Amino acid sequence: MTTLDRIDYQIVGLLRKNARLSNKEVAGQVGLAPSTCLVRTRMLQQSGAITGFKAEVNPLALGVGLQAMIAVRLKRHFKPDVEAFRQHALDLPEVVRLYHVAGPIDFMCHVWARDPEHLRDLAMTAFTAREEVSHIETELIFEHVSCRDLPAFLNPPSG
User: Which of 29, 43, 84, 143 is the most exposed place for a label (fewest CB within 10 A)?
Assistant: First the structure.
């Protein structure tokens, strides 16, 4: 991964807030010629600093009635079991984010469901029925908000 300079941080910050900004708009805000800004943005993508662009979707518009976090504890934190559960979870259409975490829980699965019955069936058939799963806990999500600013503790190089 390449080291980012102050301008790179500005480009990443602007695109994180609004990935639909045109190259011309980004260039104007960071004080670069559009051609230079485009080269920098492409280099940020090629280096892996920018991993993609996405559209935020309103789950309600898709018929998602509720969201939940399902905490999963495996029987053993054994690599084949971890990989098997990881792949299984990623293959589930209801899983929108998967976190492999440290501590008493092994995975946190952010899921979308149509309704409470769908969530119950998902928990019972897709999670607790798995051989490698020891325990699950389901927490309903009342609100989901993404922060778009880069964390304030990041200190881009000056100059």
Answer: 143
